[in-house]
User: Which sequence fits this backbone?
């Protein structure tokens, strides 16, 4: 990131996860750039069977400062019926912004500037009854606050600190917010914001303890604090939580705690009382990527999909926390949330796809892999090498109507403190045996962004909104497809972490 002053910050104050920041990297990093082999027709004969068969054109490509961690979120803010792009960007302790780009042509609709990075992904919700979704987004460390901006023009509707002037709000990171049920009875869903990082004695780091994560439950209309919770295990949390409603109407919140160097738990809590139901402990490193819930067998019970940072993917029984299976890759680390889809046709239980990076932070120089895993058993269905450092989460669709799901994913061909110097790749992998790479586009700029997929203009040609470092772009497949979209971007459409049955 070129911000070497950040190098001395404690490791766990850098929020990990899909929006992971590169700020505190050691200079000893090995930069490994793999030679490009894009869809330029230059493949060797052996690679011919692998030649990408899909082509995409870039519809627009907008300069947006220092994007690459906040994932694009789309909704129509301009009223022309075409969803627009909301995306954060910036550099730690230096600058930050939230930008809205017109989905039709990439023109800037509005931008709000900050003095620290915006790495979270926006929550979009109309809070002032003008039928235009508004933008709720947390900010990094120095700015340490949660803002609600008018979707029409970016003007501030409320901030956590402004509405609650008597609350102590540490100057630490806010991750992406999720919606909550209407708790204050005004008819609008409310929201959950999670804040973590920092120490209790920033003036005396040698004596300081890490602060436990805080969960802020806020009225979406005003930002008024409804509930506040400190993690029961007193650990940090950088994982985006998941929330479910049980058949009796009550709710449960699932939190992942711990960090890249410290172990943690998956906590199942009654919501909003925060009474603990069960906990599941990691081995050596915490739960950094977001949690997902899914009813695998159609029994009415959602299980938890959790990825521990030390290369472990687990399916946990939703009522007890018992580990039903695990897929382990020692020597790998996991930044990304998995995707769920139909990746083999042996049963009706959805499977998983996950990227893992070989090495130990901050030394990622060998390879990343993408692994398809049987949702019923945890067995690996297929696996392939996928760049050098993978931090994005996938989007899932059936592009060709064969009942097996394609995966839209991004990875990086290197790793460096300078994200502009790294190349990244956007891919579509086939759902069928062999998991061929159907589309491959390389870009300048590191990315942890999860691509958004959808048909923006209804011409049956799939659009992909993606953001390598420093830009935000819309690509469109050149051929029409009969696609069905199941998971359209970072944490899907509803943001509650629940992957619906189909
Ligand atoms: Ca509004
Ligand atoms: Ca409400
Ligand atoms: Ca397919
Ligand atoms: Ca289109």
Assistant:
């Amino acid at each position: 990131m070129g911000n070497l002053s950040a190098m001395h910050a404690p490791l766990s104050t850098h929020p990990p996860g899909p929006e992971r920041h590169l700020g505190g990297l050691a200079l000893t990093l090995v930069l490994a750039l793999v030679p490009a082999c894009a869809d330029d027709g230059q493949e060797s004969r052996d690679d011919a069977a692998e030649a990408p068969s899909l082509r995409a054109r870039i519809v627009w490509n907008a300069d947006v400062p220092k994007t690459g961690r906040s994932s694009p979120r789309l909704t129509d803010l301009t009223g022309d019926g075409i969803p627009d792009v909301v995306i954060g960007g910036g550099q730690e302790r230096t600058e930050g912004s939230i930008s809205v780009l017109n989905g039709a042509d990439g023109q800037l609709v509005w931008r709000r500037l900050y003095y620290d990075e915006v790495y979270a992904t926006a929550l979009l919700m109309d809070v002032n009854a003008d039928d235009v979704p508004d933008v709720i987004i947390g900010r990094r460390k120095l700015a340490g606050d949660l803002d609600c901006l008018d979707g029409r023009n970016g003007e501030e509707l409320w901030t956590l600190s402004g509405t609650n002037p008597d609350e102590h709000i540490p100057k630490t990171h806010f991750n992406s917010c999720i919606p909550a049920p209407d708790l204050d009875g005004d008819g609008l869903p409310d929201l959950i914001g999670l804040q973590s990082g920092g120490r209790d004695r920033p003036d005396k780091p040698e004596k300081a303890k890490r602060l436990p994560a805080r969960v802020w439950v806020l009225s979406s209309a005003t930002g008024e604090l409804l509930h506040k919770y400190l993690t029961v295990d007193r650990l940090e949390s950088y994982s985006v939580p998941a929330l479910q409603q049980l058949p009796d109407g009550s709710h449960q919140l699932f939190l992942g705690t711990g960090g890249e160097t410290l172990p943690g738990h998956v906590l199942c809590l009654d919501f909003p009382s925060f009474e603990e139901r069960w906990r599941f402990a990691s081995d050596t490193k915490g739960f950094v990527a977001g949690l997902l819930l899914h009813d695998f067998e159609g029994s009415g019970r959602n299980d938890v999909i959790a990825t521990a940072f030390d290369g472990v993917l687990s399916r946990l029984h939703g009522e007890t926390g018992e580990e039903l299976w695990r897929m382990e890759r020692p020597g790998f680390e996991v930044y990304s949330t998995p995707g769920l889809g139909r990746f083999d046709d042996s049963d009706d239980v959805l499977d998983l796809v996950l990227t893992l990076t070989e090495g130990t932070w901050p030394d990622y120089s060998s390879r990343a892999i993408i692994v398809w895993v049987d949702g019923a058993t945890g067995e690996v269905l297929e696996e392939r090498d996928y760049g050098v450092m993978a931090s994005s989460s996938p989007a899932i669709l059936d592009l060709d109507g064969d009942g097996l799901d394609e995966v839209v994913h991004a990875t990086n061909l290197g790793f460096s403190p300078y994200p502009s110097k790294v190349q990244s790749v956007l891919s579509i992998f086939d759902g069928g045996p062999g998991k061929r790479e159907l589309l491959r586009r390389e870009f300048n700029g590191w990315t942890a962004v999860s691509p958004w997929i959808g048909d923006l203009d209804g011409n049956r040609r799939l659009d992909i909104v993606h953001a390598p470092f420093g830009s935000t772009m819309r690509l469109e497949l050149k051929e029409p497809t009969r696609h069905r979209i199941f998971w359209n971007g970072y944490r899907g459409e509803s943001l509650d972490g629940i992957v619906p049955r189909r």
Remarks:
- The chain has one helix and 36 strands.
- Residues 126, 128, 130, 132, 134, 151 surround calcium ion (ligand 1) (CB under 6 Å).
- The helical segments are 160-163.
